Amino acid sequence: MRKLVWLALLLAAVVVPFGAYVRLSHAGLGCPDWPGCYGQLSPSHAALAIQQAQALAPDGPVSLDKAWKEMLHRYLAGSLGALIVLIAWQAWRTGRQRLPAALLLGVVLTQGLLGMLTVTLLLKPAIVTSHLLGGMGVLQILAWMAASPRLAAVTAPPLLGRLSGLLASALALQLALGGWVSSNYAALACQGFPGCNGDAWPALRFDHAFHLLRELGEAPDGSLLDFASLVTIHWLHRLGALLVSLLLLSVLALGWRLPPLRRHLAWLAAAWLLQVGLGIANVLLQLPLPLAVAHNAGAALLLMAALLLLSRLRPRAAELRPAARVTPAVMTGVTRPGEGR
Fold this sequence. Notes:
Layout: H1 2-24, H2 47-56, H3 64-94, H4 98-120, H5 125-147, E1 154-156, H6 158-183, H7 206-209, H8 227-255, H9 262-284, H10 289-312, E2 313-315, H11 317-320, H12 328-332
Helix pairs in contact: 1-3, 1-5, 1-10, 3-4, 4-5, 5-6, 5-10, 6-8, 6-10, 8-9, 9-10
Subcellular location: Membrane
Keywords: Cell membrane, Disulfide bond, Heme biosynthesis, Iron, Membrane, Metal-binding, Oxidoreductase, Transmembrane, Transmembrane helix
Protein name: COX15/CtaA family protein
C-alpha cells in the first residue's frame, strides 16, 4: 500500500505540471477527440489526419508535435488512474485508509470525465479550471496518504489551527483564481509590478470576468471578452496572493514559538517565497513557458505544505473539554453526615 501510494504521488507530481505545460504550449486540442487521436491509438497512427488538419490551419491547434504532447499527457494520466484503482482495491482489501482511497478514486474518475469535456467542449474555461483543481486534488490526497502518517502531531493553540485552516482555504481559492487566469489566457493582461499597466489600481469589470457559462474568449452574449474583464481576472489573482501572504506570515509568526513545527514552517516559507518570486518573474519576463509551468508546480507544493501543517496540529487537551466542576466539599475533603469517603 505504501509503495503504491508513493509511486502514484511521484507520477501525479509529473502529470499535474505536465498538464499545465500542454495547456500553456497551446497543445490542449492537439488531438481534438477523446480518448484517442483522430480515432487512433497514437499520433503516429493518425499522422495523415493530423497533416490534413494542419494544412487547413497552419497556425491552428493541431500539429504532430502538439498531438504527441496531448497524448503523452493522456497516457501518463491513464497510468495514474490505473495506480489509483489498485490503491483503492488494496485499501478495501486491507481495511487501511479506506476513506481517503475512496475519495481519491472518486476524484480521479471525475478527472477522466473532465478531461474528456476539456477537449470536446473546446477548452471551456470553467471545465479547464475544474480539471486543474481536480488534478491538484488528486496530488494533495496522495501527499496526505503518503506523508501524514509519518508526521508527528503537535499540540498547538487553537488560534494557530484556525489561521492554518484559513490559509489552506485561501490557497485553494487562490489556486482556483490562478486556474481561471490561465484558462482565460489573462496572465499578461496586467503589465508591470506591483501596478497594472501603469495604474496603481486598474479599472475593473466583474460582470463578464467570472461568468462561468461562457466559451473561451467570449462574453456570455457571444461577443468577444473585453480587455477590462481580463485585467479583472488577473488583478483578483494578485489580491488573492496578498491575502495568502498575510495569512501565511501570521501562521509563521505564531507557529515559530513551537520548536517541533519550525522545520515544517521553514518549508512552508520557502515554498511561499518561491511561488511569489515565480509569479512576479512571470509578469516581468512575459510568461516564459518554463517559469509558467514552475508556477503551477509551486502552487501544488505550497498547498501541500499548508495542508500537511494543518493535519499535524492538535488542540491542547485542556481546550478540548470543559474543566470538571469542583465543589467546595471536594476541595476541602469534607463529607456530609452519613456519607462515606
